[in-house]
Amino acid sequence: MKALGIAATGMLAQQTNVDVISNNIANANTTGFKSSRAAFQDLIYQSLEREGALTSEEGTARPTGVDVGLGVQTAGTVRLNTQGGMIATENPLDLAIDGKGYFTVLMPDGAQAFTRDGSFQVNAEGQLVTMQGYEVDPGINVPENTVNIEISEQGTVTAYVENDPEPVELGRVTMATFVNEGGLRATGNNLLMATVASGDPLPANPGDPGVGVVRQGHLEGSNVNIIQQITDLISAQRAYEMNSKAIETADQMMSTANQIK
Known about the structure:
Residues 215-260 form the Flagellar basal-body/hook protein C-terminal domain. By secondary structure, the chain is of the alpha+beta class. The chain has helices at 3-26, 226-258, and strands at 36-42, 45-49, 66-69, 72-79, 86-88, 95-98, 102-106, 112-115, 121-122, 128-129, 135-136, 146-151, 156-161, 168-172, 175-177, 185-188, 191-193, 202-204, 213-216, 218-220. The chain has two domains: 3-80 and 224-258, no CATH class; 86-220, no CATH class. Strand 12 and strand 13 (156-161) form a beta hairpin.
């Protein structure tokens, strides 16, 4: 009886679905987090009767076949790159991207990573860094005795140094875009890495056509819709229960067949 194996694949698929939903809910307050959904596809089919097979010597043919599917499998997890809400923080080093694009971060091994989390800090050397201490690329160095930092929507960074009435331009916060954002690989710490599927990063400046602008003193909130996630969780739970019921029913049918004398 195939029902046991088929229903088991359904239970495994719904377990993956619940795992993805749980991660979304857990990151409902994570800065710049993008929710995901699990995508599924059916497995191969066993053909018991082919469509178009002859059913008589006169040449009549079967209009439909008799195909039994062998279950379901996870095709992938799709990241939903919709805009998160803006959260005002009044911290001059907090930056949010309003639109498309990613901040570029330089990893300790020299590789580039990308993030929507603009909760930046200044380290002991005056460099603009992420919460994990990774340097923003290209580097921005803040002078000592800086009393105020201003960052324009186009990413230009200027600083007012103590006793100097004229601002000093420190550089520019740039961005990167991708042909296929869904192909980026999440590595944790709010960081993403480019892959063959995403394509190479395309350098851009904030405000360029098709690129978002920088909002100083704001952070981008998670785009998780809690109500939708709870609804999806209930749906996944019910689907899991129905697959479990299918296994129970198949077991009862096999038990009944075994008792026939």
